[in-house]
Write a sequence for this structure.
């Protein structure tokens, strides 16, 4: 399966993206600002080709196991990122909740110059099994591109 994050718009300190699996739009993603020089927990992940993997360790994994029970098989991690580690696609609505990770949502708003995603838990429940399947497949790749539309 081909998986892509396509960035479509920038706020003052936020970036709005679309998540596609096999060419089909899945949900919106929210990331930090794109920066030339990384600022820890305030910078969007770089463009390029990476891999999705299932990460079964850490506090976030424990939290999601408690929240989602047996449906949770591990966090979906974007692996192989230069100067980034433990980057998960997860639940959240505003950039203060990203710490460099993409947050998923079914819709978005722009408030005071910043993007936010909404209905994050619903989006996560929808995309998690699909991303889990990609991460466990023979081609767990994910491509991140900047194609700003507005």
């Amino acid at each position: 399966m081909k998986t892509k994050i396509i960035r479509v718009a920038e706020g003052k300190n936020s970036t709005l993206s679309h998540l596609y699996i096999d060419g089909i739009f899945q949900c919106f993603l929210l990331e930090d600002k794109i920066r030339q020089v990384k600022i820890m927990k305030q910078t969007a992940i770089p463009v390029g080709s990476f891999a999705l993997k299932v990460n079964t360790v850490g506090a976030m994994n424990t939290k999601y196991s408690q929240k989602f029970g047996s449906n949770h098989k591990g966090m979906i991690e974007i692996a192989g990122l230069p100067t980034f580690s433990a980057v998960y696609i997860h639940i959240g609505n505003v950039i203060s909740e990203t710490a460099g990770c993409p947050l998923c949502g079914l819709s978005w708003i722009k408030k005071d110059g910043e993007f936010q995603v909404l209905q994050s838990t619903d989006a996560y429940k929808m995309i998690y099994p699909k991303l889990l399947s990609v991460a466990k497949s023979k081609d767990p790749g994910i491509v991140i591109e900047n194609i700003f539309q507005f």
Observations:
- The chain has two helices and ten strands.
- The CA atoms of residues 31 and 125 lie 19 Å apart.
- The beta strands are 3-10, 14-21, 24-32, 48-55, 75-79, 90-91, 103-105, 107-111, 114-118, 141-146.
